[in-house]
Write a structure and sequence with these properties.
elongated; 163 residues; two-stranded antiparallel ribbon; mainly alpha
Length: 163
């Protein structure tokens, strides 16, 4: 914090674990100076990983108060810095989970970060003809090649290609 008390900067993001007690936050009504109020709000924002409504709840102010404070360039800069720290924290947590071979995290990272997809869906019109023991696919338009169909004699595919 600078000598004049107008630096609302963030400290390192808190490591949050399930057994850690909630840190004490002062109500903004208890704080005398505007810089102290803004600093406490940024501290709460850092704790809540950037969730504005939760940070406001912790210090007893409205979201409107938060957004009014954001008109101050120093407060806005501290908010942006907190957001960057939160993004780094989330990225680090994601990488740690990938390194620990947590499957769901790896799938998420593959989809969101790398842009990979699990499957491609296509719209296909097909009529299905049922008999007593079998069924066959009758494609509308181009001949249909069935992939992954459990048909050892490949009858359904042969019938469709003939049509």
């Amino acid at each position: 914090m600078s000598q004049d008390g107008n630096n609302y900067g963030t400290s390192a993001l808190l490591e949050i674990s399930g057994d850690e007690a909630l840190p004490k936050f002062k109500s903004l009504k208890e704080l005398k100076t505007l810089p102290a109020k803004k600093k406490e709000l940024i501290r709460a924002l850092s704790y809540t990983l950037g969730i504005v409504s939760y940070a406001c709840q912790l210090v007893g102010c409205s979201r409107q108060t938060f957004y009014n404070y954001s008109e101050d360039k120093k407060f806005l800069k501290a908010w942006e810095e907190t957001t960057k720290i939160v993004e780094d924290f989330v990225r680090l947590s994601l990488y740690r989970n990938i390194a620990a071979q947590k499957e769901i995290t790896t799938i998420y990272a593959s989809k969101v970060i790398l842009g990979l997809i699990e499957k491609t869906e296509a719209q296909l019109k097909v009529k299905v003809k049922y008999t007593k023991s079998t069924f066959e696919f009758i494609p509308e338009g181009e001949p249909l090649e069935i992939i992954g169909f459990d048909d050892p004699d490949n009858k359904a595919t042969k019938k469709n290609k003939k049509k």
